[in-house]
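Researcher: Sequence of Digeranylgeranylglyceryl phosphate synthase follows. Predict its structure.
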Amino acid sequence: MANLSTLSKFPVRIQGIKRESSRWNGGQRFDTTTGELSVASPLISPGGRHDGIEGISQCQPTTSPSKPLQYHLYSIWLFTFSDLKTIVGPKTVFGILNALAFPIFTSSTSPHSLPNLIQILLRLPLIAFWAWINLLPFAICNQRQPGALLEDQHNKPWRPLPSGRMTPTQAKRLAVCLYAVACGVSARLGSLPQCMALVALGLCYNEAGLADSSCIARNAINGVGFACYAAGAVEVALGTTTLRLLQQPGFVRWLAVVAAVVFSTVQMQDFYDQRGDALRGRRTVPLVVGDGAARWLTAGLMAFWSVFCPWYWGLRLAPSAAFGVLGVVILARTLTKRSVEEDKKTFLAWNVWMAFLYALPLTKLLSER
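Model: Prediction complete. Tokens:
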């Protein structure tokens, strides 16, 4: 386990109270001046609010076995709270929309052998759960890294590790167990290959540190990971293992397009977190090439994909224009709205644009009827 003593060099701020911590261990603080052992309050909400306890709780181990089940379930939920809008929600949308559009990817499968709209919509909870259970162990492994702990102490102190709800050792054990659970769920739902690919990508991203050492590797892992999530979500939505998605050339080409879009534009999420990434030593596109150059590069790529993707599907003028206008709005915001809060809004708009991207095959199918 990584040594967390480096966190002692940084001040911790909670509701305007500044405290210098001299020694940290899994969320615990030992004050060498008073000799008191304390832990960060476990009751910090994702919005930064304290639920009844100010500052820190003296000598209260937050991971005590006596904690109720609800406490531990909430801790698990907090690991993925920030990623619901970027992974779980969008991939659920992709699974639904592209399952409905699946006849456009192949001519060898009879439409009568595919599930109908009601059958696919009834599987929505399974799609969302599959995406979430595969995200959960990845998120835990990512957040237990020393650099992530340092970053979260400043940016997301409500997360389970910086708030003291769980220790890094406990998080590691939990992640191992949850990887096994994710593989079991995926085997049952028919998306085990995608799950195994996500496990391998997670090891490269977190344990090997490729996401921190290279912006190209970081974006590439994100691109391939998005494609794996997308393929798994579609397979779960279709509700059968007899359809070999990767044997459908049209679907594989579409996954390649999605992966390329993500690879070239996912740095949209890095603009608002440059301070935290610099603190962590992470080499993101804005930190490697500079903020201004990264924004112009991203804007140019957004313009390209906003034209190319509707052309790829041969869409009519109206849907092409709608998709393109949204892309233009996002690239304009990228260039002109440069505060942290505005960059967060732009990233949220990028996720909406990605949802529209996922809908392009279904738009094409409907236009042909």
